[in-house]
Structure formats: structure tokens, C-alpha cells
Design a protein that fits this description.
Order of helices and strands of chain A: HEHHEHEHEEEHEHEHEEHHHEEHEEEH
CATH superfamily of the largest domain in chain A: Type I PLP-dependent aspartate aminotransferase-like (Major domain)
Number of helices of chain A: 13
Radius of gyration of chain A: 21 Å
Oligomer: homodimer
Pfam family, one (chains A, B): Aminotran_1_2
Strand content of chain A: 5-15%
Domain Aminotransferase class I/classII large (chains A, B): 41-381
Keywords (chains A, B): Aminotransferase, Pyridoxal phosphate, Transferase
InterPro entries (chains A, B): Aminotransferase_I/II_large, Class-I_PLP-dep_aminotransf, PyrdxlP-dep_Trfase, PyrdxlP-dep_Trfase_major, PyrdxlP-dep_Trfase_small
Organism (chains A, B): Paenibacillus hexagrammi
Mean pLDDT of chain A: 95
CATH class of the largest domain in chain A: Alpha Beta
CATH architecture of the largest domain in chain A: 3-Layer(aba) Sandwich
Shape of chain A: globular
Distance between the termini of chain A: 46 Å
Structural class of chain A: alpha/beta
Chain lengths: 398, 398
């Protein structure tokens, strides 16, 4: 059989993380590569109790549900969103299979082949893959530690007439950045004027180390959902657990409705057992106290890794201490190719993601992303020693 | 904000079932419309126990999983498939968010705009929606109670050079048909020769009323997965419960791998909590005994509805008694438009799906689909009375 695959496979780059996992198969590897939360803090007992409550609801709990998602969970999430100054109704929300599906659904309803999408530099690689598979033209906007540079954003909007700007303004993946309030407002204003849609991806916003700092979402700055040019998405993957695969998107009800139509034909609806479990969890478990707990542990792990990075004393090494989220973005000396260092690192028993994979264009090859949330103290120390060893061997062979 | 949606929205017809649900909102309606299993038989206690076993596995159960799906469940399903003479390895299987996602993923990796897909006449409407949204050209092959008519299939393959043939050979939706063995073999042979891929959709195969009958799947007739031109998909939605949203597809490992790549960017993976729960359910619960139970009840309900149809005495009424599955396909007198009858039926408090929605082309307006699995005896009797009343009023007004 000669399979005649779609041409959309051509635009489809293989995931670097996936290739790395192949390299690590069967080996004992300390991984700073994935974006995994720490398993030891998963609230498994509360999850078990919440599921029991679902079962107690009776057999109807196992029937088909709405494409839009379990309504009590949407109502509950509306209340949580309101606490963050995002005011929406359940009709302005769609529950999805993780926030990854939001990126995919929006691309399906909004992007045609050849349409332009602007992204940060660097940005989330699995968003790039979705955009590429649809045949979009992706340009990156020059960015610094405060977010996209407004002059470059305005220039690229004028030049390319993009349909969409994709951003992770709070504790970005991979750079761990927080956009300044000024840049958030600037993004909103410039895009509103040019009628460009913004997808604000916020999986990490709750993992904030400075309890006093306030980082208002772009969606909240826009005011209301109706007619808004901002769609906001988040997920339970980092705050409760990834296995539920439950995310949500809020925005104008017309856009939400179009996404729901595509979702209906994509999978009818996401697991309503999981949605019901999360509803009961929100009702009976102090999720905010739980988030405070993981913030504390993640900050401790971040500080440990930062300290170990400081100890490395590689000339030309640069990074910013993250204010939240799950990643440290590291710039290596200019002559180092992180992809090559990676191969040596895997030999030594440690993994990370080479930064080049996070660029829409002109990759910076001397960068890498380190995850600090998944690995405990002992293994973080050990892993960083292995990384130092890998660099030593790499430099000897260079 | 002037939203600039993708042109793929143009090809997107609204779901008739969805429109019907709108008509019925807030009303007490007896529905023969949906494809819903009967809630009263959901094995909720076994599900609760299976979930407890997942929780007992420890916190790792809540971490990210593989895109391909929870491996022990794939292994377990391989054993179930082998019992039906379908021999595959876990690498030749992908777990999905219901079998609906299989249709979507295959369309994404295999179909380009303008490609031709052949379908049965009539066929599953949500498959038609997926194909239409991708911009495929869909032609229906003349079909009778034994399946597609081979001469027409061969002629249309020669004429249109299709990439894909989509079929539901066992207890089809909506027609409730079972393909003869001869036609199954014919389909396989003709498509193999012309290098046309077959998607065999089998959500209802387990709901078989005659325990002695044997309906080998087209996939099993093809022999092995490697290099095969048959992909086979099924789901737990009709045998355990829909809320899990867990389906699977088996086929050549290269095709499966491409579908997994698209799935990764579509939603990373489906709920692994649900997949783990189903694994423990298969290990500790007699699913086959459960299926025997629901077969018995569904057959009883089918016979009740067939008896009530016989009592209607509408001139020109035609149907075939189903050998399994969830639907009776009814041909009304030629001058009746089921869509108009439907509006009257909703007034009377009963719903069905007008058959015209299940045709890729040249719809037969005098047809309707009745579901017999979801409604109990009392309401089935009452609903059929309401349907008779609706017809009476309809004929008076005609």
C-alpha cells in the first residue's frame, strides 16, 4: 500500500523534546527537559474524594456531555476568573483537552494557509508546530525581558497584516519572562487598532513567587469578552495535575461558538468525568492553599538551580532569575551549540531542551531551557554536576 | 473587532442534531434522536472501583502520559482485538478522545482540499462534517441492505480516484445495516487494488443481537496491520460509557505514527486518568458479561419499537429490523418531508433525526432515524403515540 498522506505533513517539524525522549529511552536520565510539574505535590487524596462525589451523582454522570463542557465547572471557573478581574459568562468559555487544544482549535477556525501570525522570540514550540501544520507564516517580534518590543510589533503589524498575535505574557515558556504592565497595555492597544486577535496563553500565571506582585492579564485589561480582540486560555495541568487534560478558553461568545463547532467535529467533547471531578475538587478542596504550597516548593527549587548555575562559572553564561513559572532560560557562550552539548549531556545522564527549537525564525543556537519544577534537590545537584561534566567534555572536543 | 475567521468555516454545516436540541430546550421531550446508550446499565460501581485502583497506583498516575495512550490499556485492547481476529501490537494502536477524534486525525494526516472520499448512502453525519470542513469532495456509493454495491464502488473509484472510503459495515449509523461477507471481501479487494485507504468505523459491533452470527471486520479480512489499506476504529462509549471519551484506532504503524504526531499538537494526549480507569476496569470487571446484558436489553427495546412501528399502519412505511446497534432507519411515504414532520413532532413532545442530514449528496427527504436504546418501555410507547399524533396533524395540514 502506497500511502498518500496530506501535504500538511510537510510543514510538520518533529518535536525536539520527543527526539530527546528517544535518546533517553532505557537510560537513567535526570531530566531538566520536560515541562512537568512535581508529582510529589499532586493532591491525589482530594482527587480520589472528588471522584467519589462524581460517582455518588449517579449513572447520569457517565452519559455524553456538552461540547462546551460541564456547565457547573464553567460556572465555577467563571468565579475564579472574576477574582482575577476577568468577567465572563459560561457562554464565553469552552472547556478543552488541555490548553494545547485551544491553540489548535483557534488555528482551525481563524487561520488559513498563508495567514501571518506574530509570536514572541523565543516562544512555545508546540504552538509553532500547530501554526506550521496549518501553513501559516510565522514571524517573531523582537522581545526583551519586559515582553515584545512595541516598535517592532507595530512595524511588523504594518508590514505583514497578521491575523493573530500569540503571547505568554506571564512566566513565559521558554524564557520565564513577565511582561511589564506598559507592554501589556501597548500590545492590547496596537492590536485593537489594527483589529488583530491576541491569544493570551497563561498556563503558568498561578505559579508566582512574589505574592505581592500583580501581573494583570491582557484579557483583564481589555475589559469585557464581548467584541474583545483577546482570547485567554489556561489549564489545570500545572495547578492540579496534567492527567486530567482539562483547559479552558474565554473570549467573545461568537469566537467561542465557532471553536465549539470545530471541537464537536474534532472529538464531540473532552472527558466529562474529569471535568466533573475537577468541579467537585474546586468545591471541596482549597486549591489556592494548594497553589501557595507548590509556589513555595517551586521557588525553592528555582533558587537551588540558580545557585548551581552561578557556581558553574562558564564564561559568557547569562540568565534571568524567574519570577514564577517552571523554566530558566540560559544563554551559553556564543560559540556553543546547545544541540551538540545536549548529545554529550545525554551521555552523562542529564537532559535539557536546546533553545533553538523555540524560535520561529533565526534560531539562537547558544541557548537552552532548564526546568526546575520536576526534579528534587538531590537530583538537581547531581544533574547540574553532570551538565558541568558534559560541558567540560564538549569544550575538550570542540 | 471585525473577526476574520478561516474559510474552513464556510464548508461547515451545522449539526442537525444540535439544531434539534435547540428546539427541545426547556421542553419535556421524549427523544429518539440522539445516539445515546441507556444510562441505567452503566457499570458505575465497577467504574468507581477501577478509579480507586488508579488512585492506589500513587501520584505518578496524575502526571503527563504518552500521546499514543496508556500502554497497559493498549496491550489489553490488543488482546481484545486478537479475540476478534485482529492481530496488532501496541505500536499499531493509538488511543483517542472517542472514535470521533480518529475520523478527525485521519482526515488531517491524509486528506487535502479537493481530495475525494467515498461514503455509504446514508452515512454518519459527523464524519461528513469533518470531511467537509477539510474541503474534501464527498461522493456516496449506492448501497442496499448488504452494504455498498460493488459495481458502483468500482465505477466511482475508477471515475474519482478517491483517497479514502469511509464505512460502518456492522450495524451502521444511521441505517442499522450489516454488510454481507461477500461485500466486505469485495470492498477490501477493490480498494487494495486501487490503493485506496479504508476507514472501518465500528462503534456498534459489540451490540449484536444474534449471538451465533459472525460478522468479521474488514480489518480482520485484510490479515495484518503492516502495509494494510484498512484502519479500524472503535470506542468504549457504547459498551462502557461515553463520558470517558476513549476510543482507539489500529492500523499500519506508519499511519498510526503520523496520526500520533498530529494528536500531539492537537491536545498532547487524551485523559490518562480515564485510560487508566478503563485499564483496571478491563482487568477486574467482566466486560463481556456486561455487553451480553446490554445486548439483551437493547434487543428488547428494538423489538418493542419495531412492534409499535408495525402498529402505525402509515401507507408506504418501510424499515428493516436491525440485527444490532442502536438505530432503526425508517422510510416514510414519498410525499412526506421528515424535516417538516420533525417540527410537528417536537410540538407533540417527541424528537427524531430527519434522515436527509445523513446523505453526502441527493438527500432522501422522506427518511428518519429512530434510536431505541436510550428510552425505556413506557416512554417508547408514549413517544410513538406522540409521533403518530404528529403525523396525523402533519397530514391534515399538508
Amino acid at each position: 500500500m502506497n500511502y498518500r498522506f496530506s501535504k500538511s505533513l510537510d510543514g510538520f517539524s518533529s518535536s525536539a523534546v520527543r527526539e530527546i525522549l528517544k535518546l533517553t529511552q532505557g537510560k537513567s536520565i535526570i531530566s531538566f527537559a520536560g515541562g512537568l510539574p512535581a508529582e510529589e505535590f499532586f493532591p491525589i487524596e482530594a482527587v480520589g474524594e472528588a471522584f467519589q462525589r462524581v460517582i455518588q451523582q449517579g449513572k447520569g454522570a457517565l452519559q455524553y456531555g456538552l461540547t462546551e463542557g460541564y456547565k457547573p465547572l464553567r460556572e465555577s471557573l467563571c468565579r475564579r476568573m472574576a477574582n482575577k478581574n476577568m468577567h465572563v459568562t459560561p457562554d464565553e468559555m469552552l472547556l478543552t483537552t488541555g490548553s494545547q487544544q485551544v491553540i489548535d482549535l483557534l488555528t482551525r477556525v481563524y487561520i488559513d494557509e498563508g495567514d501571518v501570525i506574530l509570536v514572541e522570540r523565543p516562544t512555545y514550540l508546540a504552538a509553532l508546530q500547530v501554526f506550521q501544520a496549518k501553513g501559516a507564516k510565522i514571524y517573531s517580534v523582537d522581545s526583551d525581558n519586559d515582553g515584545m518590543i512595541m516598535e517592532d510589533l507595530a512595524a511588523k503589524i504594518a508590514k505583514y497584516n497578521p491575523k493573530l498575535v500569540y503571547v505568554i505574557p506571564t512566566f513565559s515558556n521558554p524564557a520565564g519572562r513577565v511582561w511589564s504592565l506598559e507592554r501589556r497595555k501597548g500590545l492590547l492597544e496596537i492590536c485593537k487598532k489594527a483589529e488583530v486577535l491576541i491569544l493570551e496563553d497563561d498556563p503558568y500565571g498561578e505559579i508566582q513567587f512574589d505574592g505581592n506582585a500583580s501581573y494583570p492579564t491582557v484579557f483583564s485589561l481589555a475589559g469585557k469578552a464581548e467584541g474583545s480582540n483577546v482570547l485567554y486560555t489556561s489549564t489545570f495541568s500545572k495547578t492540579v495535575a496534567p492527567a486530567f487534560r482539562t483547559g479552558w478558553v474565554i473570549g467573545d461568545s461568537d469566537v467561542i461558538r465557532q471553536m465549539a463547532r470545530f471541537k464537536q467535529s474534532a472529538d464531540l467533547h473532552s472527558s466529562s468525568i474529569d471535568q466533573q471531578t475537577l468541579y467537585h475538587l474546586l468545591e471541596h478542596f482549597d486549591l489556592d492553599a494548594h497553589i501557595a504550597l507548590i509556589r513555595e516548593h517551586y521557588e525553592e527549587r528555582m533558587k537551588l538551580m540558580v545557585g548551581l548555575l552561578e557556581g558553574l562559572k562558564w564564561p559568557g553564561l547569562k540568565w534571568e532569575q524567574p519570577k514564577g513559572g517552571m523554566f530558566i532560560w540560559v544563554e551559553l557562550p556564543e560559540n556553543i551549540r546547545a544541540e551538540d552539548l545536549m548529545k554529550q549531556a545525554v551521555q552523562e545522564g542529564v537532559a535539557f531542551v536546546p533553545g533553538s527549537t523555540f524560535f520561529a525564525e533565526n534560531p539562537q543556537y547558544n541557548t537552552m531551557r532548564l526546568n526546575y519544577t520536576h526534579t528534587d534537590r538531590e537530583n538537581t545537584v547531581l544533574g547540574m554536576q553532570k551538565l558541568a561534566k558534559a560541558m567540560e567534555v564538549y569544550l575538550q572536543n570542540a
